[in-house]
Amino acid sequence: MKRSTALPVLPGFNFDTRIGQTKFHKPQHFGKIHTGVYYLSERVKCGIGGQPLHFTEQDRYPSLYPRGEVQVLPPWLAFDNQRLMFKAYFQETVQERWQSSFQIRVVIISFFLEDGTIKISEPAVDNSGLEQGVLVRRQRIPMPDPVKYRYYDIIDLNIGKEPEFFARVYKIVDCDKFTRRFLNRCGIPVPDPIDIPSDPYNERRKVEIFPKKPNRKIDTLAKFLSNDRKVLRFYGYWDDRETTYGVIHDLELHFYLADDTIEVKENVPPNSGRDTGFMFIKRMKLPKSFSRIDPPGAGDPLTVLNVIGENTASSWYIVDSLDTGRNGREFYTDKDLMIGSQMNVFGRKVVLTDMDPYTKEYYRLKYGIEDFTPLERPDAKKDSECKSVEKYIPPYNGFGSYEDSLGNCFSLEPKPPRIDSVKFFDYDKCGFESHVLRFRAKLVSNIPENNDRHFIIRVFLTDDTISIFELAVRNSGFKRCLFQKRMQVMMPGQDIYTNKKPKYYEPHHFYIGARVSLCDFHFQITSADIYALRYMELHCNQFSKANIKLIMEKLRKALKPVYKQFLNEVSPEPADRDPDIIQYKHLREALCKYLGDKITEHEMITVARHFSSHEKKERHSREYIRSLVHGELNRQLWSELDRLEEDLHHVDRARTGYLPRNELYTIIRGCRLPLDVELINSMLDHLCKNEEGKVDYNDLLQFINVKLNPVVPTPPINIKSDLWWASEKEPDCGAGIDWCQFRKELGIQDEDHGCGSEV
User: Fold this and answer.
1) Distance from C-alpha of 59 to C-alpha of 140, rounded to nearest angstrom
2) Based on the domain organization, do 264 and 349 belong to the same domain?
3) Which residue, 229, 232, 352, 633, could crosslink 359 as a Cys pair with Cβ 3.0–4.6 Å?
């Protein structure tokens, strides 16, 4: 509520002036103070009848804004970050200086257009002895008496004017280009710049005075910047055999191009009885001749003749500019160093024999030298006849592993043996690549009960360790457990109690048909899993039994004399449905007949897998696997089919209906489907797939749906063992062999048969 100043302060005489008002913004008015110059006033005080009152000290007049040229904006937007710059000076009296009674100080006056504030700063001058910088902080400065209720504004600042700021008079002598143009556009003329009067003290300081202590050091900065970190390396020797117990010292000389300094290091051979890493000469300028040690002060660049003055404060030196009596010393430079050069290193004769490639290139470019034939040390032939002495290692005592016992021979505090980290990272498990070869083996023993024992041998490629697991039959008297822990196994028939490292079993020693002796137990390897067979075939350079080229070369050499008899026994009959396909068992019988012990079971399986007709018979049908799955689901009372379908749709956002096998396997395991791993893999093998190899998960949902098309339950079996690869009686080599392709790669000349007659 506002009251009228013409009415008394009584009840009933007050009223609300905002009744009927539609605009509630804060009005802004321009007040005219000078012709052509307008100031923005945020509040105008009005008297009776709406007449404006006189301006008081509370009124604010923001800076000038030219009318009619640009869009009308508030000054705090139109003149943001804009200011007028004036150059001025003031004269300051100095009572303590007898040479001059005053000094001239140059300042910069900044007038900020957005709010009319002023800041005065003095540029810094080196060695002025004054606290320079901001003299008057940014603020509105009132005008001195007799003018009242007014602040310095744009009309008060111009070249030639002498404004008084806080009892100090400044003389404005110049302004910048923006200030001159801005004032001219506002109709304010700007005079020409005025010269600043000279300062007697500064003029006196400009006179060059000879220093009391002249500095005559040679400027080497350019050489340092151009040659920094550039070092020439030379190899040489110092022959000290003339003295008692003297030897030839191998030296390495470094010449620093940045400052022409030289350092010499000695390369001490091992087991020489001398300290290693010996610094022969530290980095310094190496003189060509040496007679005595220089006294203190000999390296100073000046020669002082006399000191004049009564006391230390008012004394100065008289320097010998001619360096009378100074003895010039010569130092080694890069032009003095070359292959075959003889250097005097403080009385020692050092001969340079060779240099590194960078030094050779440096001398080739700078001096044009092309011959860098190295010199031979005097005792080079004698050193070549020296025999190296091997370190004696005591024999292995049988306690712990060989590596653990060997660690006790090198230190009092033995450290654990280091593993081959490179081999570990190369053969570490990565996804489905386990780098573990699994073989099935049976125990070979004179005891009849042991002949029926079967084992799984796992070979780890990361560190060539071996573990054995026994597959015991129920009620056989043997336990199904770990037979041998994971460890390296020594090969039999070697003397281990020596100082030489014993030989251990490696992955290439294991193949189908091999007999291995592991910890005094003899095993016959009977089969291998698919991963082991495929890995050995892909890395056939490490596994000779899986190298099809070596095997075919062996077959070619053995079957060439009896090739016709071999064809008569193995060739398919004319009545067969497919004359180009033969059975694997017929080929195996013929190879065993003609090669005997020269071919192993693993090599025959490699041949069968290479020439397989890809007609492998399935061990179990789809319905049999489906009945096993339904039996497990009903036994575990699993009813999360909707949840599984929801997870499949969440992964397959595009609703293609197909997912990769590994993703589908992960979803099945994540949904806690109560099925064994072998049963899950068998189920995924029988599901429908597209051309890209992805599995149809809709077929999976129908496959495990126990309510839709239920199957006849089957007798319970041991899924862990019956569906495992170790339970297969036949090797994974297919049902048939491509006979034409086999004969073609065999490459034996045959004139009686048409298919692959000559290759």
Assistant:
1) 12
2) yes
3) 232
